[in-house]
Design goal:
With about 425 residues, this protein is an alpha/beta fold. About 45% of the residues lie in helices and about 15% in strands.
């Protein structure tokens, strides 16, 4: 139900109506007095509603329309749906506690088909989007020239540092490049996980679908192995087309590996692990932040023991860590989605990573609006390039006039079947560039 302002009717308005009903019921006046007072009561009620309407309009004077280009029905949907929930829940929460700013989300489903990215951009722009947000690695790559041309900032959760993405000042990455993440993880493995004194040189390879994030991982992994031949033996990377489900060739090429790095994609990871183990092979599986968003989906496909010992880097704290950001995300999740909360937590890091990104983006929005009371692409850009933040328990992160990724640290987590959860095994590590 909405009031005459077009906003949802508030609980206060409902209480006022209920109270008025009680007053009418308790009066012991005769019918003539009631009939005489009725017009005045109606006028008073209309005046109150008009005043409430004016207050609502005054409070929500800055409307920010954000276009979310995502995948809700394609192969990335298991990880993307919790991100959708987090963005919507964050917007609802902020609209409640910040009456002077109203976040409006318009959403386009690409089905993880990069050929739909431009159509999604045009659709969102036609809906009034002033900013584009996206969790998909292809979107920032594709839309970089459009963002530059139209002065529309793109807040991307997963964009690579390839030339097309890096060339646009208007694409802001709210995580860090996967090449940096994988190099940081390999350095940690070499120092903390592999026993070089009693074991041979570990062999490492990569498998996943041929898409930007996995290609970026592949580049970082290959470079690290070339730069550190005394730490790893490079077995190669294998990236067949998206939606590949049969991995017989890749399984045989990677069967002797001690570590296997995954590109993102829950179905890809799950089907490979099952086929790899079905052949009797074993390795320590390794992934980065985007992969961890599929954890629940992979667990449902492979079982907990199949992932025992798997290592992930993460740009956000895990659900079992103490942090105000974690607490806010958990509170929001249980407030708005109580029946789904446990399954969303179990699904992976999508919700909490998206909440963290939304929290940072909103800090930029507040600074961009400032005292002017308006927002456009240029004001967001100007605020973003000067943005720095440090939450309790986190390092300081930020953009600069030349740096377009926010996060500069990761933590390492290990899946432990014994406790059926991820266990943090490192402090914050500066990313290896």
């Amino acid at each position: 139900m909405t009031n005459s302002c077009g906003y949802p009717a508030s609980s206060n308005a409902g209480n006022s109506t209920s109270t008025s009903g009680t007053i009418f019921a308790d009066w012991s006046m005769n019918r003539s007095w009631k009939n005489a007072l009725a017009p005045f009561l109606v006028l008073a009620l209309l005046t109150t509603l008009s005043f409430d309407c004016a207050v609502e309009k005054q409070r929500k004077k800055v409307v920010i329309t954000m276009g979310d280009i995502t995948d809700m029905t394609g192969p990335a949907a298991p990880a993307m749906i919790p991100i959708v929930y987090a963005i919507d829940d964050f917007a609802r929460h902020q609209n409640r506690i910040h009456p002077d700013i109203f976040l409006d989300i318009v959403r386009y489903d690409t089905k993880y088909d990069p050929s739909r990215d431009i159509a999604g951009y045009e659709w969102c722009r036609n809906k009034g989007a002033q900013i584009i947000i996206t969790p998909l690695p292809t979107v920032g790559e594709t839309l970089a020239p459009f963002a530059e041309r139209d002065k529309v900032p793109i807040a991307s959760a997963a964009i690579t540092s390839s030339p097309s993405g890096a060339s646009s000042d208007w694409v802001f990455r709210f995580n860090c490049p996967p090449s940096n993440e994988i190099k940081t993880l390999l350095a940690w493995v070499s120092e903390n996980h592999w026993d070089y004194y009693n074991q041979r040189l570990p062999k490492i390879g990569l498998v996943g679908w041929n898409e930007p994030y996995a290609l970026e991982q592949h580049r970082g992994l290959r470079e690290y192995c070339q730069d550190h031949p005394d730490e790893f033996e490079w077995a190669g990377g294998f990236l067949p087309p998206i939606n590949t489900m049969s991995w017989s060739g890749e399984v045989e090429r990677l069967k002797d590996c001690d570590y296997i790095v995954f590109g993102p994609g829950g179905v890809a990871i799950g089907t490979f692990i099952n086929q790899f183990h079905a052949k009797g092979y074993d390795a320590t599986f390794v992934g980065t932040s985007v992969g961890i968003t599929f954890q629940g989906f992979i667990l449902s496909m492979c079982g907990e023991t199949s992932l025992d010992g798997m290592l992930w880097t993460s740009v956000c704290r895990w659900w079992n860590q103490d942090s105000p950001v974690i607490s806010m995300a958990r509170e929001s999740l249980y407030q708005y989605r109580p029946s789904e909360a446990e399954s969303i937590i179990r699904s992976g890091s999508s919700y909490i990573n998206a909440y963290q990104n939304a929290y940072a983006a909103f800090e930029i929005l507040e600074r961009a609006i400032g005292t002017g009371g308006n927002l456009d692409g240029q004001s967001f850009y100007d605020a973003a390039v000067q943005f720095k933040t440090s939450w309790e328990g986190y390092p300081e992160w930020g953009f600069t006039k030349t740096k377009r990724y926010l996060v500069e640290h990761v933590e390492v987590y290990q899946w432990t079947a014994e406790v059926s959860d991820l266990v943090r095994v490192s402090d914050w590590l500066p990313v290896n560039k």
